[in-house]
Amino acid sequence: MSKKLVIKVTAGADAPERCSQAFTVAAVAVASGVEVSLWLTGESAWFALPGRAAEFELPHSAPLPDLLEALLAAGTVTLCTQCAARRGIEAADTLPGVRIAGAQVFVSEIMADGVQALVY
């Protein structure tokens, strides 16, 4: 049985500690060889856009652009369909490697065997 971790992050600059925790856990899991799927929802949706992670600051935390780069290189990063639409974000606007998908795909991922899910 393979192990997969699905993380849904709802926080962005509005709740920086919660946001940073989600990205840090996801990046550490990827570095540990775990298959990771990170879902950007709510205010974290903005991080699907080029340059937005670089605007995020939280003292004593890893730089968000570095964490996001690691996740894009070795994991899956998904932008919520409805969250993107509410913010006027289209697929052509996002960073390379970010996919846009909805609740059906999220539910499918978290219901698979061997999956652990976290929401931040």
Automatic annotation (TrEMBL):
**Gene3D superfamilies recorded for this chain?**
DsrEFH-like
Under the heading InterPro entries, the entry gives: DsrEFH-like, Sulphur_relay_DsrE/F-like
Q: What is this protein called?
A: Putative peroxiredoxin
Name the species this protein comes from.
Kitasatospora viridis
